[in-house]
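Reply to dn_fold:

You asked what the input looked like. This is it:
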Amino acid sequence: MLGVNGAEGLMRAISLVLIVWVGGGCGCTEYCSRDDQHCMEDCTDWCKLCIAESDEECAETDRCSRSGTCHLVDGVCSATSNADCRKSDGCAASGKCSFLLDGCMVGSDADCGQSQACRMDGSCVLKDTSCQVSEAGCMSSESCAEYGRCHVVNTGSTKECRPMSDADCRNARACRERGYCSFDSTKSLCA
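and this is what came back:
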């Protein structure tokens, strides 16, 4: 059972939005060492959290490389520019390359066009807040070359690149290398 000081300390830590899971080199903070006996004994192993106190500590976290949150702003690790976003894994993978509002988001067709999602699966056009497939994206995707998934098909709640004919399948690497040369319309794939 936590004492009054321990409970207050825990509530203060929980209420701080600037808690960052240990993923980089951030060590114990003065707060953790000063206010919680268990944390004094072994801050990073017992608490499993740290509170970033500088840009350098934010830059050492996994979240920095994943989502561009590399700078300390009002006590919270945050993205602050397009440059932060462009260096993130989210930009490379899914086009979250533009600093908008308060974070890294897809901001243009160009963001989508440079992403792995575009190259692999044809998600090359901004729609709403994410990259979506397009006919041109499907045609130029690795998915088209490999599996014949060269056309936009509505699959209910989403649209995906899929083959639509035997010709799509015959032109794919999967036909030449594995014999998947016929279009199966029941499954919408090459078989």
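The first helix runs from residue 4 to 15.
Hope that clears it up.
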